[in-house]
Design a protein that fits this description.
heterodimer, A: mainly alpha, MetI-like fold, 2 domains, 14 helices, globular, B: mainly alpha, two-stranded antiparallel ribbon, 73% helix
Amino acid sequence: MRPRSKILPTAVLALGGVYAVLPLLWVVFASTKTSEELFTTFSGWPSFNGGLTGNLSALNDYGDGRFWLWMLNSLIYAGGGALLTVVVSAAAGYALAKYRFAGQRLIFGALLAGVLVPQITLAIPQYLLLSEAGLVGTYWSVILPSVISPYSIYLCRIYADAAVPDEVLEAGRVDGAGEFKLLWSVAAPIMTPGLVTVFLLQFIAIWNNFLLPYIMLANDDLFPLTVGLYSLLNRGASQPALYTLVITGSLLSIIPIVALFLFLQRFWRLDLVAGSVKG
Amino acid sequence: MSSFKRKAAPYLMTAPAVVLFVFFILVPIGYAIWLSLHAMRVRGAGFGIRTEVFVGLENYVDALMDSAFFESLQRMLLYGVIMVPATMGLALLFALLLDAPRVGGKRASRITIFLPYAVPGVIASLLWGFIYLPAVSPVTSALKTFGLPAADFFGDVSIYFSIANIAVWGSVGFNMVVLYTTLRAIPKELYDAARLDGCAEWQIALKIKIPLLRPALVMTSVFTLIGMLQVYSEPATLRPMTNTITQDWVPLMRVYQQAFVENDIYLGAATSVLLAGATVLLSLGALGVFRVRNARSAG
């Protein structure tokens, strides 16, 4: 027989769960309401008067489908940026873990110091430098600064150190494999769980980023969801009719990332983040 | 030939990271410092031609004397005094509960508490903002049904709690999972002796688990502190909903205002260098304190 759960600790933990989902539940309910219902009916309960379909089609029509463009942009920034981060960080992390070379300490030390530099305070000089290069207001202005992530390199180094055995690499060398072939076809497959974690952390970080695209972009059509919805709310401050658009847009913008998160959460190696990898 | 290739390999592999690091972190830092030491000044008498000149530490003096910046710092600290202990306290509490025996619904709770981490800060602020907004708030309408007075989430004092709550909501889960993962790596045998001695679970948590968690606690606290210094999207998103939040409510909003509204990039750079310096000092301080303690407990 399983021992019975204790009531108080179980209840406290459950309360934490309720706190976490309540706002998400609210946005689901609120998106079912017409603009009028939003202000007149109790918002802790959904409506079934076609509010949701109305809101969806209004959002679809907004700026000729601009919302979907924002979502696509977010996918490009987060997906492309995170993918590039993984490639750059995996190669660097692996090299730092598995080779001894002059300048290694300097590179690793500089990267570690980079973890402490708040990315956000770099935004103004990055903006000025990219505007000199004529890149401000392009996709690259958001993607390029996101690709370098000292923390991701640090995680890759830890993971390569713990997971890739030196003997396997030596055996590959004896068989005549080149160094890059070893990285690509021996080390990378072993490092996959760690790389998935780095990809997810970075995907979420870029998807959630606000200040960088907010500073870099002026053209509505290049906005990611965060900046797009923010601009929509700013316009809506004088027109409460836009509230329902913002609410429905918020709901739709959460769905893909929550789905990705739930789908991939069993592949996470968060012991990596906690610094206790056992390979 | 192959030995040369082997020697070149690590440099080639780290090259993309190093190049990006130089261009997007090192050069911007250098540029920010350079800007912070310069200003636009009218040169020569009467012509009114503005040129960039070296002004030494003038911008830093201005930044430190700037009362708006000072007030934004105070607001950030008030917000941090609520946000940091609440986030870390709840994360630790939940992690210990997840690790304790005979607690039900662990998997479901772990996933739901972690879920808000995936919600962008701006979207989280929009959701909570609407929950705070009197006209649509479910809290306000629930209070009304029971004939209670409406809650004011945008009051002079309550605003700090309202904004801290958004950040706590978004970050408890991540910290909880990091702490919980660390707890799971601790060999269970460590607790057996204590249990045999009749220690209660909360005593084991307090006397064995928390001391062993210290490295992870320090790391998550440093990240939470950095998050506090960088607070921006929550107050910026709520601003259209209330007049309580000014355009320069927190330091980063003030930096943005200096650089892009008042068009004084130089002053903005000085202010952000100050903020970055404070962040680095704070992190190094926390890590240093931790190292000293560790060395002591090891020795």
